[in-house]
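Researcher: Let's continue the batch. This sequence belongs to FUSC family protein, and it's 703 residues. Same format as the previous ones, please.
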Amino acid sequence: MTWTRLKELAETPLRGLTQPTRSDWIFALRTVSAGLIALLVAYALKLDHPQWAMMTVFIVAQPVAGMVLAKGFYRLLGTLAGGLAAVGITSLFGADPWLLVTVLALWIGVCTLVSSLLRNPEAYGAALAGYTAMIISLPALGEPHVVVDLAVARCAEIVLGIVCAGVTSRLILPRLAADAIISRLKRSILDLAEYAGGAFSSGDPASLAALQRKLITDAQSLAEMRTYARLEAPSFATRAHPVRRTIGQLLWALSAARTLHSHRAPKNAALIPMRRDLKAFVNELAATPGALDDTGPWVVRLDAIAGRAKEMPALPNDTGPNDTGSNDTGPNDSSEDKVGTITRLTIAGDFAEALKQVLRGLDALRSPISRKSNERSQPALVVHRDYQAAWRNAVRAALATLLVAIFWLTTKWSEAAGTVILVAVVSSLFAARPDPVQSAWGFFTGTLIALPFAFLVGQVALPALPGFGWFTLFVVPIMVPAALGMANPRHVGVATAFAINFLAFLSPHQQMIYDPGPFFAGSASILVGILIAIGVFIVVLPADPWVTVERISQAMREDLARLCLHERIPRRSAFESLAYDRINQLMPQVQRTGRKGDPILGGSIAAVTVGLEVLRLRHAQLNSAVPHETVESVGNFLRGLARELLFRRPGEPQTATIAVARQYAASIAERSDRFEMLQIAASLRIIAAAMEDYPDFFAKGRG
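Model: Same format as before. Here are the structure tokens for FUSC family protein:
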């Protein structure tokens, strides 16, 4: 394996994205075709705002068919909920404009709150329910009797766009989520092999850290794709359970590889054969073309490696000098250290077993077998919900919408209604993004770029050359590059904003006329609305990434404390899914802080290792072969560890918990050479090592 290859993999999100691929072209042409079909049908049905049908196609457009169906489904739900809310609110409060806008602002706040607690595409549907009510209700101000007609027309336009987008994405050269899951899982397995090969070879830390982030992100994407695939085809439900289990095994293998890299002992004679076998295996797996076409031979080899890791090695009778509490950064490097040897052999076996289960999961996805199994009771991936951030987002969206609405009612500037709507849309839609200001600014940029194109086509070309044929001739050369940009992760935000607002500015109707006054007035209201929303993100309750980081870190420490103290021992998979979901939420916040955040990310991964060792200790307490005094000692340690996690602050001296862990480990190793006893000692040692590596992460924050 070459490190050039590893660096290329680590930099994949940043490179190779400017040249459209065949899939990008298919996506672009399919999306533009669906948009034109939706517009043509809207013309035939004589809908009041046909542009919404075509805009909806671009709003829900995604490269994967299941993602289109998911976003379209939740957009439909959000539109229906917003339409019903608009009818109800306008019917009750439409006689009083001030009361109406106040209730609408509160509704937007509630929907933003719910949206911030959910994940895409559910979050998108909740946000949409908020500002859809505003879009429908404001035109009915003073005429509440027309609100039902407006709601019905709006829903009809949205449904038309969703149907066109969904049908074309599913029938015209579709890229299915089920296939994408298998493809991404195969790529993740090879990335894991590259990571493990680098970890076992003392590779470049920066490249390993970048690839580690990619693996965590891909694992979360796999969880999301599972939902998309089930919407594509209900038959995929039988494969949803292997996906869920395989994600946990993938992350377990990643954690084990990282631990082996952080606490390696190359001079230990009992470990050298195991490390050599693992290194040879992952290097061969990563370098073999089509290696995952047949996983059988790889599974057999991993099974043999995992079996050897569980065998009791020949250990010396005496222990090295560092077994009694030295301040080493991990299990001791001495070949005499039997506790360290058992620790590393256990983790190596965990890695081999986890990778074996991942390969079996891949086979289960490719060849699903319908059978009853108690494995189906495995919990779904748990999500971390940041209630403080959700309330902040709700207050900002409601307050911004209300203040601009008050300005509109006070000045009676008719075009300010568009400003109110855009403030509601942007402040709600981008509220939960890691950097809402950057997201909103990208939306503003795309909108601004769309303005001259819309003017030239809608105010100059189409009034002179009317008809759907000329419309297609003028619009397709503009919308195809926009759709290509939407397929590019680096430009998706700006390109999507361009496509949507180009159509909004253009406002295509069967009879286009030259009328620049309303065009520029409406365009100005939209741009001003976006800028006001950006100002709200900056000024009103601004988000500090460090506060969010500390809040998630504190939640992880509380998770560990519960593992120590709770009477019921949770499933390992449940803890892993929760921990890695929190890490996935930490990553975008940490990335905003630069290299200052690297210790936080490292500490969060170490927290997973600590949690897994705590679970190992909890299960050891239930083992009848473990002496009662050892069970009591482990219980005392876990209670002390919980106090350390919950109450010690950064900068304060560590309590005796770590020293106690090392003393217990040394005492157990001196009293017994039984494998289960040495594993207890090893767990104590590795918990102490992890907390010493990242002392501030395992301390209660100041926030």
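Researcher: Any comment?
Model: The two ends are 44 Å apart (CA to CA).
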